[in-house]
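Page header: ASSEMBLY MODEL / three components / 1038 residues total.
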Amino acid sequence: MQQGRNVERRTILKAAGASLAVAGLGATATACGGGSGSGNGTVTIRYAWWGGEPRTIAIRKTIALFEKKFPKIKVKPEFTDYEAFWEKFQTQASGGNPPDVFQNAVGFLRKYDKRGVLLDLKTQADAGNLSLENFRNGVLANGQVDGKQIAVPVGANTMALVIDLKAFEKAGVEARFGWTWDEYFDALQTIQDKLKIAGDTGYFSIMYLYDLYLRQNGKAFFTDTDLGFTQDELTQWWEDGYKRVRSGLVADPKKVEQVKPKSALSAGLAASEFTWDNFSIRYEGEGESDYGLAPIPTTDGKNTGQYLGSLMLSGFSGTKHPEEVAQFIDFMVHDPGVGEIMGYDRGLLATTEQYEAFKPTDPNNKGVAAYEEEVAAAGVLGRITPHPSGADVIEAAFLRIGGEVAQGKTKPADAAKALFSEAKAAFAG
Amino acid sequence: MTLVKEAPARPAGQRPAAPAAGRRGRRRENLAGYLFMSPWIAGFLLLTAGPMIASLYYAFTSYNLFTPPQWIGLDNFTTMFQDPRWQKSVEVTLTYVVVATPLKLLLALGVALLLAQKRRGQGLYRAAFYMPSLIGASVSVGFVWRALFSDDAVVDRTQKIFGLDVGGWIGNPDYVIYSLVALSIWQFGAPMVIFLAGLKQVPQELYEAAEVDGAGPLRRFWNITLPMISPVLFFNVLLESIHAFQVFGSAYVVSDTRCGPADATLVYTCYLYQKGFKEAQMGFASAMAWTLVIAVALVTAVLFWSQKKWVHYEEAAK
Amino acid sequence: MTSATSSALPAASERRRRGSIAWHVGAVAVLAVVLYPVIWVVGASFKPSKDIIASLDLLPAKPVWENFSGLADGISGISVSSFFWNSLMYAVLAVAGVVLSSSLTAYAFAKIRFAGRNLLFTLMIGTLLLPYHVLLIPQYVLFRNLGLTDTLVPLVAGRFLATEAFFVFLMVQFMRGLPRELDEAAKLDGCGHLRTYWSVVLPLSRPAIITSAIFTFINAWNDFMGPLIYLNTPEKYTVSLGLMMFRDQEGISDYGSMIAMSLVALVPVIAFFMAFQRHLIDGMATSGLKG
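Prediction written out in full:
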C-alpha cells in the first residue's frame, strides 16, 4: 500500500509535469515578447501593422530588405485588419507587451500618449538614431503631441471620392474640382435616373467625411478635447442622409451590409464612395468597372476641407531596444528601396528620398499621385492635429449609429443624442 | 436534472473494504481522493473560483486595463441598466433564446420520434442529422450562413415562392436574428440524439397496454411518451437555453464581426466582448457578466422549481 | 407525429407500406435541409469566385480549381498549412489535457470515498451551468500578467486542470456504471488506487474517454473566441482565425478562396465524425440519460 501511494504521488507529479511542459512550451514561444536579445548579439523587435494582403506582402519585403542591411536586428511581423489591430494593441499595451514598432494614426496618438505607451522619437533623433529631416509638405507635424514626436509619418493620404468611371460616363455627369454638394447630389440623381443604380454607398456614416464637411464650415469633428460640432448640426447631417437613402440616392443599406467585406462600390450597388485615396487600389481588383479618384464636394465652391493625413510608425516607450527601434523606423521612412516597394499603399511617400525613388507606372498609383498633386495645387490643404483620447471609440460609434439611421432604425435626432452620450463616455475613459 | 439530484447523494464506488477499514483507512482514502482531484481543485481555484471573485470585484470598479481598478460602487450597474445598447443586447438575446430553443427542441423531438421507428437507414439518418451539431459553431459555417441568407441565395428564393419579398436576411435588421435562429435550429441533432436515447428506454409494455385500452397515437404520445421522456426533455431545455444565452461565434461571424446591422445581432456576449476588449471597459463588462450569471441562475432555478410539476422521474431512466 | 412503437395489432400490410413511404419521405426531406449547407459549400468552392453567390445551381456547371490553388499561395505570406498545424497542436494538447485530468478527477468522484466528495461534485456540476463570460476577463488578466498571451497555454491550461466539467461528468457516469466487483477484486489483490485507476478503470472506460477525446478535439478545432482573444501573431493563428484573415476589409477580398478555405477547414471535423460517429452519438446520448 505504501508503495502504491508513492507511485500515486509520482503520477500526480507527472501530470503536473505535463502541464508545466505545456507552460514551458508557451514560455519559449513568448520569449520574444517585448523584444529580446540573444547570445550572438542579435536583437529581435516586433513590428505590427494593419492592412490588407497587398500591404502585408509589401511590408514583408521591406522587412527582408532591412534585415539584409542590419543583420543584427531580426524583425518579427504581426498584422491584422484595422479594428482587430487596435483591439489587440490595447490589450497588449495594457499588459506592457505591445509590439516594439507599430503603425499608428492621428486617432490614437493622444490616447496612447496619455497611457504612456509611445516612445518619444525626438530623443532618438537627437541621439542620432533617426533622422527627422526631408519630410514633405510638413506631414511630420502629424505625429507631434505636446512637443514630442511620438510618431513618424510613412505616407500622406487624404480623403477622396472614388467613382465608377463607366457609370459617370454613361450618365453623362462629370466630377470637377470645386463642385458643390448640391452639384454632387444632382449628379447622383442623374445617375439614379439614367442607370437605375444608387449614387453613393452611405457617405453620412463616415466620420472623416463629416470632418471635412465641418472643416468646410470653419469647424472640425474634434477639438483638442471634445467634439467640434453641435447635436443639432449632426441631426441635420443624418436627416439629410436618411432622406437620400429613402429616395434611393444612397444605396440600400441592407444590400451594402450583405456584400461585406466587399465594398458596395465594387459590388456595383452605387456609383461612388468616399474613402482614403490610398485605398482606391481595392476597387479595381474587386469590381468589374473602372474606377477613378474624384474631388470632394465643397460648400463654398472652393474649400474641400481636406488635409494630408498620415499613417505613421511609432515605437513602444518600454521597448528594450529603443535604438534599434529608431534605426528601424529611420530605415522604413527614408530608405529609397522601401519606398520603391511600398509605393503609395499608405499614401504618397512621406519623405523626399522615398518619394523620388518611386515612380508610379500603374494607373492606380498614378491616379493617387495626380489626385494629391491636384489637391495640393488647389491650395485647400488644411492641417490635422492629433485627435483627443477616445476618438477611436467615437469613430466606431459614428459608423454604427450612422448605419442605424440608414436602416431607419434610429431617428436622426435620437442618433445624434446617442453619439454625444457615447462620446462623453469615450472621452472620460 | 437527475444527475445533479441523485449522483452525489448516492454512495457509489466501493465501500471501504474490510481490511482497510478504520480511521487510517479513511485517512488514506481522503488523501488518495484529494490527490486524484488535485488537477481539478487547482483548476477550480485558479480558473473558476478565483476569476469569479475577481470579476465580482471588477464589476464594482472602473477598470481600463492600464490603470488599477478604481472602486465606483454600483455605477457600472446603473449605467448598464440605462444603456440603450445593453437593453438592445438583452432584447436580442432573449429573442434568440425564446425563439430558437423551443423550435430547436420541437424539431429535435419530432425527428427523434420519426427515427425511433425501426426502419432501414435509420442509423444513417441519425448520423447525418447529428453532424451539424459538430460543425455549426465553426467559422466556416458562419461564412456559409452569410451566403445562404443573402439576396437571391436559397433562402431568399424559397421565401419568394411563399410570397415573402424581403430580400436577404443578412443586411436586414428585422430579419437577421432569424438567420441565427435558423443556424441554431439546424443543429437540432444533439438534443435529438438525447431524445432518441430517452425514447428507447420507454417500456414497450406501456404502449401495448394503452393500445389495448384503445388509445390512439396522439393519446399515447401525450400520456406515455411525453411523461416518460420528461427528464430528458428537462435536461435538453436546461442545456439548450443556457447555451443559447452564451452564443457568440455565430453572431460575430455571420454579422461580419460587427454584430449588426443596427445592433440587430448584438447578442449579450458580443456586447460584452465589445465593451471589454474593444473599449477596454473591463469593469462594465464584468458587471454585464455577473448580471448574466444571475439571469442564468434564475432561469435554472425556475426550471428546477417547475420540474416538480412536469418531470416524472419514477420510471424514467434509472 | 407517429408513435414510437410499431403497431402490434394486425394491420393491413398496405397501411404499413404507406407508413413506410411516409417515413422515408419525411426523413429524406429533413436530410435535404440538413445537408444543403454542406453540399452548397462543396459546390461553391469549385465555382469561379464571382459566381458563388450569383449562380443558381448547387453544383458548378464547370468545376474550377482556382479557389484551391489560391489557397496554396497562402495568405499574406502565411501558408495555410500553418493554420492547420496550429489547430492540430491546440487540439492534440487539449485532448491530452482533458483525458488525463478528467479521468483522474472522475476516478476520484466515482471510486474513492473521501470527505467532501459530494460537495465537490455539486460544485463541479455547478460549473457546468456557469456562463464562461464571468471568467473571461479575469482569466485574460491573469494570463496577461503571467505573460502567457499569444501562446497556447491559456487555451489548454483549463483542459489540463479538468475545468471541462462536462467530460468529468461523462466519465464519472461511465465509471460508476462499471461493475464494482472488478475494482474490489483489484483492491483485494493489493492494488492501490493508482494501479486500479491505471490498469482496471482506465482501460474499461475507453468508450467514455474516446467520446471525450473526440469532442474535445472538435471543440478545440472549432474554437473561435479563445484564439480570438489570446493569439496575436498570425503565424500562431489557428484555422478559425486564419479563416477570418480571408475576409479582407482593406485589401481585395477573394471570396472564392475564403469559401474554399471554409470547406478545407470543415474536412477534419467531418472526417472525424464519420470515423467515430457511433462513439460520439452514444456518448452524447449517455450524457443526458444516466443519473
